[in-house]
Amino acid sequence: MSLTLHYHPLSSFCQKALIGLYELGAPFEKHLVDLGDEAARAALLKLWPIGKFPVLRDEARGLTIPESSIIIEYIDQHYPGETRRRLCPADPDRARDCRQLDRLYDLYVNVPMQKIVTDKLRPEGKHDPYGVEQARAQLEAAYAIADDQMRDNTWALGDEFTMADCAAAPALFYSNKVVPFGAARPRLAAYFERLSARPSFARVLEEAAPYLAFFPG
Predict the structure, then answer these.
(1) How many domains are contained in the chain?
(2) 152-201, pLDDT tens digit by residue?
(3) 3-state DSSP helix/strand/coil percent for the chain, to nearest 5?
(4) Residue 146 near residue 191, CB atoms below 8 Å
(5) What are 11-54's pLDDT values in tens digits?
(6) Are β-strands 55-58 and 63-66 bridged in parallel, bridged antiparallel, or unpaired?
(7) Are the CB atoms for 194 and 201 separated by under 8 Å?
(8) Per the domain annotation, does 208 fall within a domain?
(9) 28, part of any domain
(10) How far apart are CA 115 and CA 108, in angstroms?
């Protein structure tokens, strides 16, 4: 098979890429990377020197594609799969809106959530309470934007499931465990319920289930 996704099921960014691949119905193989294994880490570094996943390898085209958003757009363009649909709209203005929301969930939900979680793993005396406070504030601000965005929408961009929803699902799944939405964000909570019922995301969560106990949130 031409396409191989190097990933870990617990990673939110890997989950985002998987949702996109499942939505598009593209044929691919999965290669689970255990970063705790020296040989596996070395192999990932050889493939992508930054050493982070997900990374997609396309042997047929001789290309290595890192980063979840780029992976989804690459599949969108070159491997539409059986569904023949798009996760990034063809219209330039709609595509820009899609990417903006994709960035909202990646940079202002996922990243601050990870800051809060990884701070718990720091050694005693090495914690960053001010950084955690800033991350919580950023999450609350992003929640407010997302809640307002869902005022008249079924999905992030409207009635159409897009790359932005692929980003939102895992980001909200983990962030809600760290900083819950609360009753003040009913539209965001309802959106997350719809995401959780989406077959592609439900499949991703089922695959992640054996590893969720390791999430320190």
Answers:
(1) 2
(2) 999 999 999 999 999 999 999 999 999 999 888 999 999 999 999 999 99
(3) 60, 10, 30
(4) yes
(5) 999 999 999 999 999 899 999 999 999 999 999 999 999 999 99
(6) antiparallel
(7) no
(8) no
(9) yes
(10) 11
